[in-house]
Amino acid sequence: MALGIQHLLGLYDVSRSDIELILDTADSFYEVLQREIKLVPTLRGKTIVNLFYESSTRTRISFELAEKRLSGSPINFSSTGSSVTKGETLKDTIRNIAAMKIDMVVVRHNAAGVPLFLTKCTDAIIVNAGDGFHEHPTQALLDMLTIRQHFGKLEGLKVAIIGDILHSRVARSDAWGMKTMGMNVTLCGPQTLMPLHTESLGVRITDNMGEAMEGADVVMLLRLQLERQQSGLFPSIREYRENYGLDLDKLLTLPEHTVIMHPGPINRGIELASNVADCGRSIILDQVTNGVAVRMAVLYLLGGGEPGGHEDV
Ligand code: ASP
Question: What's the predicted TM-score (pTM) here?
Fold first, then answer.
């Protein structure tokens, strides 16, 4: 069975079997990444354009690494330094790049819907690397891979996602993907940092951090996205930290098996105290490691690779 999707635009309508296939494939790429020679030939001859209109550290590097580990040919595009600064439109940019015969586009943009728009401008396969407040599907997939590696399962686990939900594409992709996988998701943040119509996410919502964390197997903190908001959404950083930041005292109220996650970059001392970010219960760097395996799996499966077909290489 191949994937039921042609592009990865979001997790909203991705089936449980597709998510399972991506995670299982990522598990075997994880094994490849433990070898001395971390290279497989599966994307040989394919050109992938990494089209980044917004800053990125982890996502950008791990996509590029994944493409290189699969023997593909990555081309990196940043809007700064390109003809975007001369006023070239997104549509012209993509049509010109596509005219050079490319196979895949990994796109990050500050406007929701750009990945979908690109599917209408080119025949290349499109992978969403984060579009505005909308979705960040590969982040949610790597989050689920990390949780599944740690607990051996996803079904029935309780996850509390706490922070700036309004501006977080990670929260949306996690909520949809984790719900599909039978996880029990709670989103928590101040009411001013909650999106309207949260009922459409189909998960539990609260503005009380203690309530959200009760019995949680996973507590995921989100970054306060100061670059996306105008002032006045919360009284002060100090108050935000007190109500929604995770420090050592609050960590000690959690069950002993509970793990701490964060998609990065961390605002140390705001949503997460430094000693919690770096403590033994934090699996934040495992998330980063798994980003490469998950992105290899997505590119491999969308690029026409057979499930399990890379295992003998
Ligand atoms: N790196 C994640 C994203 O691009 C989370 C964040 O920026 O806070 O959405």
Answer: 0.95
